[in-house]
């Protein structure tokens, strides 16, 4: 989904050019059955899309509620009767294995999520390094549950902030260099940087709540909703995107 602003207009033009190349002049085996471009029809919650602004704790509820609306709009307008899988891939993901979809689908799980890392340049050594990025894939903790019990109905639990210590087990820190990329772990919450979902999970009613659902929102709320419907989430801690 492309934002409703000047940058979104430029992105739409660039995307349309690439679609034309792929669908009309590219090899037939590389063409998609159909492509739909969705434009955001509501105002963005933040005036700036800088990484620092996007990740401020005080912006999370409004930001992720807007992301939920965008995800649900995409889902409800494109999910067809012949759809088997739904791949959610954030636009700022720039590097994945070429076989990402096949690799994830091979596990045949209702919901499956790889581990998202970020490349960055070390300020001292100037070397390019990697660090954990998506902290929304986790296994729940007693501490988080107790925090939730003391919250108001409109409050949400957030991960990755020192001000809200949940002591959950984060998949981001389960990565082991050289370990089996097919290692699976059960999850209670999932991030959405890269996420593969069986279409039937969405058809059963699991969506991305733009409101607090058991004190969770967006993808984490989706995982809780799916769990209530009897659908489990699985993580691949050693499979990086």
TrEMBL record:
Record-level GO BP terms: cell wall mannoprotein biosynthetic process; protein N-linked glycosylation
A Pfam family assignment: Anp1
GO molecular function ontology, one term from the record: alpha-1,6-mannosyltransferase activity
GO cellular component: mannan polymerase complex
Segments crossing the lipid bilayer: none
InterPro entries named among the record's database cross-references: Mannan_Polymerase_Subunit, Nucleotide-diphossugar_trans
Ranges annotated as biased composition (Basic and acidic residues): 51-61
Coiled-coil intervals, chain numbering: none
Disordered: annotated segments: 43-64
Similarity section: Belongs to the ANP1/MMN9/VAN1 family.
Protein name per its UniProtKB record: Putative Mannan polymerase complex subunit mnn9
Species of the source: Glarea lozoyensis (strain ATCC 74030 / MF5533)
